[in-house]
UniProtKB/TrEMBL annotation:
It is an enzyme of class 5 (isomerase). It catalyses: L-dopachrome = 5,6-dihydroxyindole-2-carboxylate; 3-phenylpyruvate = enol-phenylpyruvate. Pfam families: MIF (PF01187). It is found in: Secreted. Its main location: secreted. Its EC number is 5.3.2.1, 5.3.3.12. It comes from the Eukaryota. GO terms for cellular component: extracellular space. One of its GO terms (molecular function) is phenylpyruvate tautomerase activity. Belongs to the MIF family. Keywords: Cytokine, Isomerase, Secreted. The lineage of its organism: Eukaryota, Metazoa, Ecdysozoa, Tardigrada, Eutardigrada. This is L-dopachrome isomerase.
Length: 119
C-alpha cells in the first residue's frame, strides 16, 4: 500500500479540491498499482523552511512495500516533482522528496499486517 505524505507551509485554501484523488492517480500510474491501494496525506499550514527561507515549500515522503529503490526512484521523481509544481505551484528547489522502502510487516490494514495478506 503506497503512501504519499506531503507536508507544506501552504494554507489549506491553496490545496486544490481534487489534489488527493489526483495524487493517488499519479502514484498508482507511475508505480503500476491499483489506485484503491494508494494513500495520500496532506498536512498544511506548517512552519517549514527550505534553504533558510519560509517561502512556499513542501517536504514529501513516498512509502511503499517492494516498489522503491535505485532506478525506480529515479523514474518516479520527475512525475512527482512536475505534479507538485503544477498543482501547488511549488518549484523543485522548494520541494524535498524522500523515498522510504518499508516491509509488509510494518503496515497494517483491516486488522492484520500486509505481510499476512496473500500475495
Amino acid at each position: 500500500m503506497p503512501l504519499l505524505i506531503i507536508d507544506t507551509n501552504l494554507p489549506r485554501s491553496k490545496i486544490p479540491k481534487t489534489f488527493v484523488n489526483d495524487a493517488a492517480e499519479l502514484i498508482a500510474s507511475i508505480i503500476k498499482q491499483d489506485k484503491k491501494h494508494v494513500g495520500v496525506l496532506v498536512k498544511t499550514d506548517l512552519i517549514i523552511g527550505v534553504g533558510g527561507s519560509e517561502e512556499p515549500a513542501a517536504l514529501g515522503k513516498l512509502q511503499a512495500i517492494n516498489l522503491l529503490g535505485g532506478e525506480r526512484n529515479n523514474q518516479y521523481t520527475a512525475p512527482i516533482f512536475e505534479f507538485i509544481e503544477k498543482t501547488l505551484g511549488i518549484k523543485g528547489d522548494r520541494f524535498v522528496l524522500e523515498f522510504q522502502a518499508i516491509e509488509g510487516s510494518e503496515v497494517a490494514l483491516n486488522g492484520k499486517t500486509l505481510a499476512d495478506y496473500p500475495k
